[in-house]
Each structure stands twice: as C-alpha cells, then as structure tokens.
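Appendix C. Worked example: Probable quinone oxidoreductase
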Amino acid sequence: MSLPSSMRGVQIHQVGDSSILQHVDNLALPSIGALDVLVKVEYAGVNFIDIYQRTGVYAMPLPFTAGREGSGTIVSIGSAVPSTLSLNVGDRIAVFTQGTMAEYVSAPASGVMKLPASVSTQSGAAIMLQGLTAWTMVQDAHKVEAGQTILVQAAAGGTGGLLVQMCKYLGATVIGTVSTPQKAEVAKRHGCDHVILYKDVDVEKEISRLTDGKGCHAVLSGVGAATFEADLACTRRKGTLVSYGNSSGVVANFGILALSKKNVKLVRPTLANYITEREEFEERSRELLELVGSGAVKIELGGTYALESLGEAQDDLASQKTMGKLLVKV
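Step 2, the predicted output written as structure tokens:
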C-alpha cells in the first residue's frame, strides 16, 4: 500500500491549557517495529487522560502527539507479528496507544482489537479506552454481581454511561449522579434505577435513604478530589471504592486509616495494568465486543469534532457540557 511521506496531527510541546495544542501538517509518519502495525486512523477518542497529559498531571516526555485511543485500518504489518494474531492489511481495528490524534499511528500488534462486522469503526474508537476501562472496573477492580447496589458518579458521561449499562447487565441496582435534569434523562436511559441531581440533593443523605443506611457495595468514581470524601462515605462496610479519575483534581493528603472505619477496599486502577498480558487483553476485549455487538451495551456519542478542533473538544469535556462519548474524525 502506498503511504504518504507526511501526515497531519496534533502535538504538545509544553504543558498548559488547550491553546498549546499545535496542529501540524507535516509530521513524519511513525515507524513500526517488527512486532507493530501501522494504522490509518479514522476516529480518535477524546478522554480525560488527554487533558491530564496536556496539563502535566500525567508527565509525558515533550514533545508528543496527543490521543490515547482510536480506530481505523491496518496499512502495514511488522515482519515478526505472529500469524496467531490473525491480522491482515485492511483489517478494521481499535487501538489503545499514544498518538492517535494523527492520520497514522504505530501500535504493538498484540494490543489491537480487531473489530467484527457488528461493531462500527466509530464505536471501536469509543470503546477501546473507555469501554475496556469500564469493563475491567466491573470485572477486576470490583466484581459486580446480581443483587449489589452500585453508585456511578457522572452517570451521563462517556465512561459513566458504559458503567451504568454494564452494572445493569450484571444484575446490579444502579444509582447515578448527574448535574442537570437533561443529564438525568440520559442516565435513566442508560439504565439507572435512581438518579441524584448532586447540585440539588445531598448525595450522602440520599444514598443512605436509598440503601437503608448501609451504603453501596461499590462506588465507581472518576471525579477525584471533589467527591472523594462523599465517595468513601457512600461505600458500605466491606465495600469497594473504585477511584479511577481526576476530573476535579487529584486526591491528596488521604489518611489510610479512614478505610478501617468500615473495612473499605480502595482501588486506584489503570487500564494497562489489567490487560498487560495478551490473555487478559483478549479475554476482556472479546467480552466487551460481544456486549457491544449484541446491543447489551450501547455506545452513545456526545459529539464528533474535526482534528483542528481538538482543543474545543477537550474544553467541552472538561466543562461538563457534554453527554456521551466525544470523538475526533481524523
């Protein structure tokens, strides 16, 4: 396949607000190693991790190309990619690797997800990071089971909406928090049994009322600092608090003895550590694709932006203006 000599992409040369994102028209195509594939990116997902990298919360060597997930088509395969992976030029895949906010990205062949006909390329970009993150949270961080009560913070968002659907699929009662009545309708559509408007209602008191004072078997929260104390208070005795994000800031100055009050398990997961081994990645990817392909989990898109509008997309995500998954059409 004939490839261009350069590509478009978004690079970061210094940390800061969205104005530091640089759209470049003549980036060199990434080279691939013997065990890699080169992917022509069609869609890239917009995630809070992109903002954490841009602002320096997660330190990155500078400069770097933005984006952590995407989908597209394989255009080149490394010389030593095992045939057991069954990858071919032309395959539609989803990818979890750095640099997806560009026309081409290189990725380890062992970490790409081949998309079945039942899953669109758009959905592939929407589920690679957020979908696997959500699914490993309800399988590995806390095993959600029928009869449990689960609190999902930001239940109308991209990850939150997936968590709600997955918890319902697994038989749990789901309580979701949202900021507006419009988002409450979205959370209900995702399957929330109860929705709390956290700007109007005391979340801790409402959780206590809904659970007869026991709290939730698990709290799944990507908010970080702003809700951490409430997240902990809403977790029942022997329950699990899964704190997976920092959208309001990083949790700091936490005293571990606070967990002993109710023997709460605190988990701060990252997706990569749940799918490090190929077997782990294949198992969770296969399960996720089955959920999406069957319609058990539906992908709700909150907006599609041009590559040149990545800054706007990140700002919209950070300002709570959006519902559902944001994508960039590369």
